[in-house]
Each structure stands twice: as C-alpha cells, then as structure tokens.
Write a structure and sequence with these properties.
Layout (H helix, E strand, L loop, with lengths): L8 H6 L3 E6 L7 E3 L1 H8 L22 E6 L11
Antiparallel strand pairs: 1-2, 1-3
The structure holds zinc ion.
Length: 81
Amino acid sequence: MKDYPADSLGHLRELGMGLKAFCQNRDCIHSMPILDELIAAFGPNAAYINRRFPLRCRKCGSRDVITMVQSNTATGAKMVR
Ligand SMILES: [Zn+2]
C-alpha cells in the first residue's frame, strides 16, 4: 500500500473505494464514476475532502455537479463467524 495522504484521491483508490459524480439538474440526474479521471487530471495526492472539482455533466452540460464517495461494494466479501 502506497503512502498517500488520508484525504487524497490515491488513498481512496487504495481502499478500493470510488468517487462518483452526480449531476444536480433534476431533469438529468446523470451519474458516473469519476475517480480515475480525477486522478489522471489532478494526481493521486490531490485532496478530495471539502473540494469542489470543476466538473461539467457530459449528458446535459450542467456545471452543477457534486461528487460523493462510493464505498467498496464489489469485493464479494461476506460476514463469517
Ligand atoms: Zn446532467
């Protein structure tokens, strides 16, 4: 595991988590995973907390786009006692 700052995009990726962008246009509500793209643009050390990235919706062109952390749901893991 690399040593990224705890609030960085790279750290999020190391945890197996994602970042998803949500268009706030109620007639659109397009959403898409954005983490890899943000890492490519800003680097893995870029902070994501309390930050608003300059995003534009690909579907409707709105700049009113928020990002939310996605927990890792793709591991297939289950509770074992
Ligand atoms: Zn949109």
